[in-house]
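Progress against Task 2.4 (sequence-to-structure conversion) is shown through the following example record, which the project officer requested during the mid-term review.
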Amino acid sequence: MLIRAARARKNPIRGSEERLAWFMLAPVLVALIALGIYPALNTLWLSFQQGGFFGVGTTFAGLAEYTRLFHDSQFWGALGFSLLFSLITVAGQMLFGTALALFANLNFAGRWLVRAAIIFPWAIPTSTNSVIWAYMFNDQYGLVNSLLIHLGLMNPAHPLNWLGSGQLATALIYIMAIWKANSLVALLALAGLQSIPGEVYEAARVDGASPWQALWAITLPLLRATLVVTLILRTIESLQAFDLISAFTNGAPGNATQNLGLYIYVQIQQFGDFPYGSSIATILMITTMFFIVLYLRALYRPALK
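Structure tokens generated for the chain above:
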């Protein structure tokens, strides 16, 4: 304490700068607590309640709602869909987005047009994009079926019901999610590529390294931090996806395309069951945190050794 007090007396400017920093951070910390920590704790508290309507008149019930989850086949179906959706779409977004960023980073005429085109899918609002795709793949007047009929590849009397099949609807959701978000991955990866010094590549060329060797030995290792952050952001969004699926299929046909985000909405908004919806949201939050910790351990720790 005496040493700290002596340092404070010796560095009055440093002390004032620290107070100014905390003062400027205060609004952000208040917003974080109000919009992040408090809702999470309130959701956790509600998950231990039972009964009531829209969160009013609930009573403490311990783990009753979590026990109910284990016997809910619809919950397990939504959880399985969410995990598979996240695995496939995030992998596709990272792969195609990174490849697109590498292409856009090349030095060729007109690359500004490629970089501008990258923004296009991400610029379209997600719900609007889903509605457009739903019209495109409509079985009666959709653009895709009309085009196939015009080309003679489909019988007009038997149009393909894209959204009436669980497998086809799920595949379309995967494709749409990858197409929609790989542009964000490309933009973040392109920003990371722009920060890599050109002298590193010049030294590699002098040493006789091929472009493929430079990619694996220089580009990807230096891009690791950017890819980790992007991977975490995309995983969080994919596990909590709602508007993309609700505006496209709304969980149909049946519950074949219903994820946890949509199932939470059904329980809370339609049935007013806040405790059960909160227990599902808590499971979703724990699942998301598990993947975040897993990514950080798998991708950051090797870089620190």
